[in-house]
Structures are given as C-alpha cells and as structure tokens.
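Thread: flavin-adenine dinucleotide complex, take 2
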Amino acid sequence: MTADLIGRLRQVVGPAAVLTDPADLAGYVSDWRAAYAGTAAAVVRPGRTEEVAAVVARCAEAGVAVVPQGGNTGLCGGAVPDRSGRQVVLSLTRMRRVRDLDVANQTITVEAGAVLRSVQEAAAAAGQLFPLSLGAEGSCTIGGNLATNAGGTGVLRYGTMRDLTLGLEVVLPDGRIWNGLRGLRKDNTGYDLKQLFIGSEGTLGVITAAVLKLFPAVRSRATAWVALPNPQAAVELIGVLRELAGDRLTGFEIMSRQSVEFVLRHVTGARDPLGDRQPWYALVELSDTLPAAGLDEVIESALGEAFEKGVVVDGVVAAGPAQAAALWALREGISEAQNHEGPSLKHDVSVPVSRIPAFVARTDRALEEAVPGIRIVTYGHIGDGNLHYNLSKPEGSDDAEFRARAATLARVIYDSAGAFDGSISAEHGLGQAKREIIADYKDGHELELMRGLKRLFDPRGLMNPGKVLPG
Ligand code: FAD
Ligand code: MLT
Ligand code: ZN
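Output below.
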C-alpha cells in the first residue's frame, strides 16, 4: 500500500521531490532541538498548489496521514511526524514565490514556503514594511507563521499573524483547493474561515498562499537598553512610553538577569551594556515613518521621567544601528544560549499585562520551592503580556533527573498562569507538547466546539493527527 502510494506521489511531483532514504528524511522527522522525533513513509516537496492538492488527495485515497511542514522551527513538535513510519511529511519549502505586491492596496501575496526574512526583504525592496519579526525569521516560513499564529517582537505595534492576514489559499484534507486569496480589509460575507486555519497548526488543511498586510517603511528608530528593579517597573515604563510615544512604541521586551547571563556566557561577542548587575532589563524600541522624527529625544525624556519616578535604575540609548543591533542580539541570543546549559524546559504563557508582576512573584516562588537552585530564564514580549518562562537545571545537577520533572514544573507554571486568567500558550501553539494538558486549562464546551470543527474539516482525521486536540 505505501509503495503504491509513493509511486503515485512520484507521478504527481516528480521522483526528485519524494524523499524516502532515511539519510534524506533526517532533517524533516525531528525538530532542531531534537526534543521531538518520529519517522515517515516519505517527505514530499511539491512546487505548486495543484501538486499539493494532488498529493493530499492521493494520501487521502490511501488513508495515509499528512504532516504539513515549513521551516521546522516550531517549538511544540507540531511539524514532526509520529513514530509509525506511515505518515507523509508535506514540506512546502519549494513554494516560495511572491505572487503579487500591491503598494496601493498595501498587500503582498506570497506562497506558504517563503521564508519570513525573504518576505520582509521583498516588502523593503518596494519601500514597504512587513512587520512580523522573530528570532527564527531566517528559516521559518509564512505557512508555519500562519499555522502557529506567530507573534514575535513587533506585536505591540502591528499585532500577530492573525492581524496581518487578509486572505488565504488552502488545500483541504480531501484535496480540494479553497481560494480565499482576497486582499480586502472589509468583507462581511459570513464566517471568517481564514481565521480558523490561522493557528490551527496544520490540523485543518495545508496553507499554500496568503495575502498579507504591508505598512509604510520605517525610516527612523530609537533603541534603548534599560535596567529595572522588578517587573512592576517594566509595566510602569510601558505606561510612560505609551503616553509620550503613542503608536511609535514598537517593541518592549523584558529579560531577567539570568537570561542575560546565559547570553554573556555563550554568545560570542556579547557584552553587558551597563556596568552593574541588575535584576531585570528591558529592550525598548520606538520607530517612525519620518526620517527625522526626533525619537532619541522622545526616548530620552521618557527614560528621564521614569528614572525620576524610580522606575528605571540605569540605561543606554543606542548611538546608531550597529549598537542597536548589538542590543537586539542580547535579546535574540537567549533561546540559543540556554541550550548550552542542559535541557531547556520551555513554557510560553500570557497573562494580562497588569497582572505580570504578581504572576512572576508567585511563579518564581513556586518553582524555587519545587526545585531549589532551579535557574529561571524569564524573558519575552511583556508588552503583549507574553513571557517565556524557560527553565534550566540547578548548576551541576543531572540532566535526566531534571527532565523527569518537566511535567510537574510545567504544571506549576500553567496553574499559576491559570490563576491570573492567562493562557498556557501565548505564541508557540500546542503541537504535540501541550495537546493533552490543554484539556485541564480550557473550557469543556470550547474543546467540544474545536473537536466539532476538526470533524467537519477533516472527518477521517488524516490532517496532522496527534496535534493540538487532546486524544
Ligand atoms: P514549522 O515548525 O515547520 O511548523 C509549525 C506548525 O505549523 C506545525 O504544526 C506544522 O504542521 C504547521 N505548518 C507549517 N507549515 C504549514 C502550512 N503551509 N500549512 C499548514 N500547516 C503548516 N515563535 C513566535 O511566535 N514568536 C517568537 O518570538 C519566536 N521566536 C523563536 C525563536 C527561535 C530561535 C526559534 C527556533 C523559534 C521561535 N519561534 C517563535 C517559533 C517558530 O519559529 C514559529 O512557531 C514559526 O511560526 C514556525 O514556522 P515554521 O515555518 O518553522 O513552521
Ligand atoms: C523568543 O521569543 O525568543 C522565543 O519565542 C522563545 C523561545 O525560544 O523559547
Ligand atoms: Zn517569543
């Protein structure tokens, strides 16, 4: 049966685009951190939407499950096949064309396998901005960004992928093509289907193309690195900046000292911008479409006001783009740096911004009680209420012993987020990592409606099974 199917898939996409040799499959059947691993009957790499549709239809006829995959940078195992060896990984990475760029309509239409950075570059070449920005932007794809409703560092100003999308083209689980590639900002013709596919992590269909929003290019920026006594100070500083800078407040990231220590230890060339060690830091970015917008003055007066209130302890405003990039490298290096310290137990939670200080105090206390000496790497998009609560083992302790506590520690963080009306996944999704535990944190009716939608779109359960929904 599988051999027949592979023959048919080769007829659809050509022999070179169907991989079955274990050496060729290796990069597609586990994630980059080797946190999730499976096997596959084949990896198929179609080059056009019609080929995606034919691949999905052939798999459906054979009763074989399909796992859509983009850049495979996801952090919850959503793009990794199971261990049965029967699933087909459908990689979109050959589909990377910009189909259209309409400056007057402020839209770009791209295929799902386009790497995020290439879309940013295509927009920039037309004097426009595509504002989604995240650490993996050199490898993650637009399809993966859509399927996970990616966030990143520009959400404060521009929103998540959900907010940045006007239309989609999707191959449905039976192989039909839904052409919803509309570039409309207003369209009240019934249910908004595209929003169901955004964030569905490949469980409802394969996204093949999208119409995305563009914005005017940014022509001036001001970036500052600020030391703070505690998370409450960060929340207050956001308030001061909002008042003085309004919409020009584009990014506000927070990092605990522990996060920065790991970067200073492991990232070549990283340097502490301030002399003294401080418990918390914020990276602040203002931006404007005007070339001489006086942003340095705005950021300096905001920081001055915050300093007088005791909110800011110390800080530095970047003297130019190179210094700004060095400050951002301290922030973007955390994820990678933490991998050098043993297992990194990742948690990606959100609570209302106003409740962050109490949430952090309670969560840190509970984690330290559970594992004395645990190294808590808290950082992230605090302006969106989103913290990455990543955990490293106590110095010198055993990797396996720490890993064995992963489920208990996750519960500590998720229970705390729940107590503050938060979410156990702010931006990375559920994938296979959180598909069971979500049942304890989501309303039963909501899960039942989600199951109903899954049955409607994918009655045979062949589209990325074992992800998102509890078994
Ligand atoms: P993949 O990993 O290939 O897939 C992710 C999910 O989407 C899977 O469930 C897969 O089945 C599904 N999928 C992929 N393509 C399609 C498609 N065409 N149609 C249907 N389903 C599809 N994420 C954030 O949100 N914010 C961050 O700040 C952030 N920072 C990161 C930093 C680093 C260093 C790394 C490694 C990751 C980071 N991520 C972040 C996570 C990750 O980059 C995002 O989730 C990204 O959107 C995944 O894109 P991808 O193309 O790699 O998708
Ligand atoms: C980030 O914002 O750096 C990532 O989403 C967090 C992570 O890699 O854990
Ligand atoms: Zn993030």
